[in-house]
Amino acid sequence: MTMSAERGGSSGSADVRVLIPEPELRARVTSMGADVTRDYLGKPLVVIGVLKGSFIFLADLVRAIDLPLSVDFIGISSYQGTRSTGVVQITSDLTRPIEGKEVLLVEDIVDTGLTMRYLLDNLATRRPASVRVAALLEKPARAQVKIPIDYRGFEIADEFVVGYGLDRDGELRNLPFIGVARVK
Ligand code: IMP
Ligand code: MG
C-alpha cells in the first residue's frame, strides 16, 4: 500500500507512507486480545509494556482482553537513531514483583530480537509462573536471535516503520497507522 499520509501539523508526516492502516490494526489487535483471553481463561495476568514504543499497542490490546489483569511497564534504553546497538539497559523498572505471576510481555516490534532476549532473560530471574510475548510487528529478515513470539500482529519486511507508538528519533509515535518513514 502506498497511499501517502495526509496529515499536517506537528507530526510532519509528508515523508511517511501507510503500511498498515488503522482499520487493519484495530482488527488484528482485537483478534490478538481474543486469543490472549482464550489462552489465559481463569488466570489473572500481569501485562508488561516495554516503554516507550508499546504504549499505544498495549492500550488497545488490554481493552481487547476480557480477563482480570494488571498493567506494569519496564523502560529500556532507547535505540540511538534507527538501528539496534544490541546494548540494552533498564532505565525504569517494574513497580511490583512478578514472582509466581503469569506475565505477558508486550513489545511494539521485534527487530534483531536482542532487546527481547535481554528482557526475557532478565524477567526469568524474577521467577514468574510464565512469560509469553505479544509483539505487534516482527521483522524476520533482521533476526539475530530467535524469539518465541506467542502473539504476533504482523510480519513486515526490512523497512523502518513509525506510528502507533513507534518512533523515528523520538517523533511520529502519534500517527494512528503504521507507516514507512524515510530514514533520516
Ligand atoms: P531489537 O533489539 O533489534 O529487536 O530492537 C527492538 C527495538 O528497536 C524496538 O523495541 C523498537 O524500539 C526499535 N525498532 C526496531 N525496528 C524499528 C522500526 O522499524 N521502527 C521504530 N523502531 C524500531
Ligand atoms: Mg521499543
Task: Fill in the keyword field for this structure.
alpha/beta; six-stranded mixed β-sheet; 3 helices; 21% helix; 28% strand; binds inosinic acid; binds magnesium ion
Can you summarize the main beta sheet?
6 strands, mixed
> What is the straight-line distance between the termini?
22 Å
Q: Note the overall shape.
A: globular
User: What's the total count of β strands?
Assistant: 9
Counting DSSP H or I runs of 4 or more residues, the number of helices is 3
Return the average pLDDT rounded to an integer. 90
Helical residue percent band: 10-25%
Q: Hey, roughly how much beta strand do the residues contain? A: 25-35%
Rg: 16 Å
H/E element order: EHEHEEEHEEEE
Q: Label the structural class.
A: alpha/beta
Strand order of the largest sheet: 4-3-2-5-6-7
Bound molecules: inosinic acid, magnesium ion
Residue stretches low in confidence (pLDDT < 50, at least 5 long) are 1-6
